[in-house]
Amino acid sequence: MKTEMMKVAACTAYNDISAIKFLEQPIPIPKPNEVLVKVSATTVSAGDKSIFSLTQPFMKIIFGLKKLRQPILGSEFSGTVVQVGDAVTDFSPGDKVFGSSDIKFKAHAEYKCINEKKAIAIAPNNLDINSAAALAFGGCTAHTFLNKANIKSCSNVLIYGASGAVGTAAVQLAKAYGAKVTAIASTNNLGLLKELGADQTIDYTLTDYKNLLGQYDIIFDAVGKMDKTILKNALQPDGRFVSVAKGLSSETKIALNFIKKLVEVGKYKPVIDSTYDFDNIQEAFKRTITNKKVGNVLVIVNKSDS
């Protein structure tokens, strides 16, 4: 019997866009507790950029010294279940799903397998399947850190780096919790953040936000670039500072279903910066690496599913 093949995008070298190559690999066969998803769309996220751009030797020990040990990046995906393992009970062929494989990656491919108990859920019924691919990374990351900070309905929250995938998610999630939200971003992105629900915005190109005094219960650095000491005076005495640079995101089925419910009641939407065909995934990497994207960089893998 002829082995069925799929196309994958493989990063065959660190820090080299031209080394992102298309390869053919066998379509994976799901294990008893796995589902096989035909990928409709994926993203090139800040997480992908971080691994692609690795320079630290101690991190390369984990991911590969001279090149990526597992070269297929991409953690977020959406698509259609086409096959299920014998022990699967939560999904059936034909289900529209979205999810994340976290640091196992492998979503930059036409098909991928994932354990049904991991971060995979039925896609929201009011969102197109391609856009659903952009729900997991930003949404789960914001969900993790806002809950780590013990967000409450009465919380006064400051979000630094509010225009990226994590930041735009954090603004919406914090508002869904009932918090008051102040978002820091550049001039061009303030209107979007107000549309997403921010109560106040601060233009970091015009305002010296470092002199803010004692207002916030939570400060969330959504890009991992802020030194806690810079904004220490902006925290209430018992306030919490959390940063994506200090800890790991928890991408779980519970978080996905929470985000899905918010989408379905109109309280959350993924912000799409730009969209690329799979064949142009190098351009998607370039866009993410610029650090100028607003929200998510989407990659359409299977056009027939759009």
UniProtKB/TrEMBL annotation:
<dbReference type="Pfam" id="PF00107">
    <property type="entry name" value="ADH_zinc_N"/>
</dbReference>
<dbReference type="InterPro" id="IPR011032">
    <property type="entry name" value="GroES-like_sf"/>
</dbReference>
<protein>
    <submittedName>
        <fullName>NAD(P)-dependent alcohol dehydrogenase</fullName>
    </submittedName>
</protein>
<dbReference type="InterPro" id="IPR013149">
    <property type="entry name" value="ADH-like_C"/>
</dbReference>
<dbReference type="InterPro" id="IPR013154">
    <property type="entry name" value="ADH-like_N"/>
</dbReference>
<feature type="domain" description="Enoyl reductase (ER)">
    <location>
        <begin position="15"/>
        <end position="299"/>
    </location>
</feature>
<dbReference type="Pfam" id="PF08240">
    <property type="entry name" value="ADH_N"/>
</dbReference>
<dbReference type="InterPro" id="IPR036291">
    <property type="entry name" value="NAD(P)-bd_dom_sf"/>
</dbReference>
<dbReference type="InterPro" id="IPR020843">
    <property type="entry name" value="ER"/>
</dbReference>
<dbReference type="GO" id="GO:0016491">
    <property type="term" value="F:oxidoreductase activity"/>
</dbReference>
<dbReference type="InterPro" id="IPR052733">
    <property type="entry name" value="Chloroplast_QOR"/>
</dbReference>
